[in-house]
Input
Amino acid sequence: MTRWLTPRRLSYAWLAGGVLWLAWLASVLLGPGNLDLAGQPVGTDFLEFYAAGTTLLRGESARLYDMDDQARLQREIIGPGLRAYYAFITPPFFAALFAPLALLPYGLAFALWSFGGLAALWASIRLMGLRPSRPFLWALTWFPVFAAVSYGQNSLLSLFLLALAYRFWRDGRPWAAGLALAALMYKPQLTLGVVLLWLVSGREGWKALAGWGLGSAALAVLCVVAWPEASRAYFHFARTVLPDLPNWQEFPLWHLHTVRGFWRLLVPEWPLLGDVLTLLLTGLGLVEGYRFWRRHRDRFPLTFAAAVALTLWITPHAMIYDWAVLLIPAVLLWEEVPEGRGRWRALYALVWLATFLGDPLTYGQWRWFHRAVQVTVPVLGFVLYRVGQGVGRRAGI
Output
């Protein structure tokens, strides 16, 4: 495959990415009001964040998780053309981030949020030690990055916080690394691999975990003190609703790019079988991740890269835009093992293609057959296996 990836063929990624961005921008700019040409709200999921910020501004934090009230507010923001409800499912402290943006008109607020996400992408590349210009442009061609911006999601902020935790960890500041990771507790499922890495990393790892625990506790106290009613509602919501999120009637299951989602799509009529297979593959991933750490524990860029990649294998919930965090292992592997770049380029191209085609292929299968093969998940497993092999060979193992 390496020989097949000529410069001309690689240029197709620029073409495909450019068409994707231009089509989306045209749809946003030419759509009526706060809707795009497809009748979807501009920024899609940004609507739930903007509505949450508006709720805090109105002093109605107790209604953050009241679905009827939030649906009404979202119709007020977008207009009667809104056809769906976008649930706010993150902790109350995350809504506070959007209170200043909610002071602005919706379109301007979304534009600022989008530029902030692109700035976070640029900063993340810098934090990992690269000059950002060319990697930044390549990242824009990757569908998860496009999805993070066009869906108005928080994935590029998640990428930045993970990159910041890495930089602090690399610079010998474990407490600061833990605090940076704690800021990601609006999506705690994206911290799993790094937390496991620190658990097995001795005294420095335990310091980082202490910082993570302290930061997480501070956020919890902030929520309880500042928004007590919302905190109680969120605790109930997280305990009773979030575990069953993929079973919501309106949940876009084809966007769920996890091992759990793979089996939910493939054998929807046998959820117990799917859960058992998920546990088996999760256990296999944990074993292989630990073995990788044992072999390369003295090369912390590689172990941190593996921790982020392992997160997407074991997490129960990650949408296509959450895959943007894979830029961290991609960059670290590229820099740490430069002699393997021919192999890495081929594997990156495979992931790029799978993520570009994964959603439409899965949606088509689901719509016609009510079952589907989510190609991104087996591709991720294959790539992680091949990366482990490649790094092992170059380490003389």
